Amino acid sequence: MLRITAGKLANAMRGTVGVTSSRIAAVRCLHGTEESAEEFDKRYEKYFAREGIDGWEIRKGMNDLLGMDLVPSPKIIESGLRACRRVNDIALAIRWLEGCKDKCGDQKATLYPYLLEKITPTLKELGVPTIEELGYDKPELALKSVYDI
């Protein structure tokens, strides 16, 4: 009841004050600065390379990246893997690889092999297995389809 009343009041205020969604969008566009892809990569590489970073901060950075509409570059992925290694969290490193694979979306057949090719030396250096080496790419307990029986 209160939510409905508050919604109606907000709509009435919007009409009297004259604030439209296009004005709100224009204000949001003016906020902040544009940053190039290189600057973006450097910012996250620097974030993961910080001295004294802990597991929570690594997870925060990874969740922020995976929440964006992009596939992280190999440099960022490597930086995240190195941060996981510094805190000795292999589970987080594998989750990071899974999240990056997921972000490839319908381009998994082309993007994910490219990413693996670029980050394989780092994976070998850090001793982190790939998802395929662990067998996590195939469901372990999946039931057979009833149509295949």
TrEMBL record:
* Pfam families assigned to the protein according to its UniProt record, in alphabetical order: COX5A
The entry's function note states:
Component of the cytochrome c oxidase, the last enzyme in the mitochondrial electron transport chain which drives oxidative phosphorylation. The respiratory chain contains 3 multisubunit complexes succinate dehydrogenase (complex II, CII), ubiquinol-cytochrome c oxidoreductase (cytochrome b-c1 complex, complex III, CIII) and cytochrome c oxidase (complex IV, CIV), that cooperate to transfer electrons derived from NADH and succinate to molecular oxygen, creating an electrochemical gradient over the inner membrane that drives transmembrane transport and the ATP synthase.
Q: Which UniProt keywords apply?
A: Heme, Iron, Membrane, Metal-binding, Mitochondrion, Mitochondrion inner membrane, Oxidoreductase, Transit peptide
Q: Which GO terms describe its cellular component?
A: mitochondrial inner membrane; respiratory chain complex IV
UniProt pathway: Energy metabolism; oxidative phosphorylation
User: Which branch of life, at top level?
Assistant: Eukaryota
What are the subcellular locations of this protein? Mitochondrion inner membrane
Family named by the database record: Belongs to the cytochrome c oxidase subunit 5A family.
What the entry lists under SUPFAM superfamilies is as follows: Cytochrome c oxidase subunit E (SSF48479)
Q: Which gene underlies this protein?
A: Dvir\GJ23365
State the annotated membrane topology for this chain.
Answer: Peripheral membrane protein
| Protein name (record) | Cytochrome c oxidase subunit 5A, mitochondrial
Report quaternary structure and partners. Component of the cytochrome c oxidase (complex IV, CIV), a multisubunit enzyme composed of a catalytic core of 3 subunits and several supernumerary subunits. The complex exists as a monomer or a dimer and forms supercomplexes (SCs) in the inner mitochondrial membrane with ubiquinol-cytochrome c oxidoreductase (cytochrome b-c1 complex, complex III, CIII).
Q: Which CDD domains match?
A: Cyt_c_Oxidase_Va (cd00923)
MF terms from GO for this chain are: metal ion binding; oxidoreductase activity
Q: A GO BP term, please?
A: mitochondrial electron transport, cytochrome c to oxygen
